[in-house]
Amino acid sequence: MLTAERTASGAEMPDRIADDLVHTITEMGHHDVLPRGACIEALRMVQERYGWICDRHLKQVADILGMSLADIDGVATYFNLLFRKPVGKNVIMLCDSVSCWVMGVDGVREKLCRKLGVSMGQTTQDGEFTLLPIVCLGHCDHAPAMMIGKDLYGPVRPEDIDAIIDERRGAAS
Fold this sequence. Notes:
alpha+beta, Arc Repressor Mutant, subunit A, Glutaredoxin, 2 domains, four-stranded mixed beta sheet, about 45% helix, about 10% strand, globular, NADH-quinone oxidoreductase subunit E
């Protein structure tokens, strides 16, 4: 039995992108020299609305912008801030750059995994958090660094993790 795909908020993923988004993406395509120039922003908008980019929505954006599915999938899978699989309500991007490694990201990673009960790349059972590595957050002067949603943290110590996660859980409820 197949289960319905869900948005990051837990709602059933709609078959089609909402009309207002279709209109906006269409307009963006018309204003770019090449409609495909709007694809990154279009995919970002779809993700912002639904939490991640499902195959149906990817195909719809490709059709609107006159791109092949393979071409737009190449864009969507290239950028690690575009999610092609369901993620939690809060995505934790843990920087694994050299600066963060030198400054102790291993201890932060271990504490995060233990606190959340997941390994890197996994989502918590309650769907609240997804823990992902990222090449660099550009916050090297505050290493080790991590980002939850649009909030940047650093330097993060293992002993900071409980308060950060508990605060985010409280902010979500």
